[in-house]
Amino acid sequence: MTGNPLQLIRFLTEQNNDTLFDLAPHKERRTRSQNAYYWQLVTKVADRLRVSKNHVHNAFLRSYGQLLYIDGQLVTTYIPDTEEAERTALEAAEFHIKPTSQVKAGNKGQLLRTYVLLKGSSDYNTAEMSALVDGAVMEAKQLDIETLTPAELERMRLNEKHN
């Protein structure tokens, strides 16, 4: 249920005392039109650069995306500091990671680079998705790919909120 505090209190007082509920602030989710337009841009950029859509999506998330925090802590991981590992990370669909400058020695002497985990865009709110779309638009323009005007982008965001 989504509602203001008074609506939630009324709802909860009518519930069975043995039932547990989770409570979290409501955030506007990304809009369908934002998501569709973002993936159009990803596809056009990938075609122009002759790389996969996953590669472009991960590159955009690294530049314009959101870091993943759990209980207020930034989530990190270590992977081998190799070109092959980096290529694998850029092609991944199941996870999104961003390299840092931190490298340490592993148990067997191999070098491990610290990566931070990134939120997947499917979990973005409208503001986070707007930043990602704006970054994708900027990148597309640099490749002479036609994009929506700022006014058209704003109309897309507003129309979706009112539908």
Describe the fold and architecture.
The protein has helices spanning 5-13, 32-49, 53-64, 83-91, 126-142, 150-162; strands at 69-70, 73-74, 76-80, 97-105, 111-117. It is α+β, with helices and mostly antiparallel strands and 163 residues long. The strands form 2 sheets. The chain has a 3-stranded antiparallel beta sheet with strand order 3-5-4. A two-stranded antiparallel sheet has the order 1-2. 48% of the residues lie in helices and 15% in strands.
SSE layout and pairings?
Elements: H1 5-13, H2 32-49, H3 53-64, E1 69-70, E2 73-74, E3 76-80, H4 83-91, E4 97-105, E5 111-117, H5 126-142, H6 150-162
Antiparallel strand pairs: 1-2, 3-5, 4-5
Helix pairs in contact: 2-3, 2-5, 3-5
Summarize the structure.
By secondary structure, this protein is of the alpha+beta class. It has helices spanning 5-13, 32-49, 53-64, 83-91, 126-142, 150-162; strands at residues 69-70, 73-74, 76-80, 97-105, 111-117.
Descriptive labels:
three-stranded antiparallel sheet, alpha+beta, single chain, 6 helices, two-stranded antiparallel sheet, 163 residues
Please report the number of helical segments. Answer: 6
The largest beta-sheet arranges its strands as 3-5-4
Radius of gyration: 20 Å
Strands, total number: 5
User: Structural class per helix/strand content?
Assistant: alpha+beta
Beta-strand content = 15-25%
Q: What's the overall average pLDDT, rounded?
A: 88
Q: Flag low-confidence runs.
A: none
Helix content: 40-55%
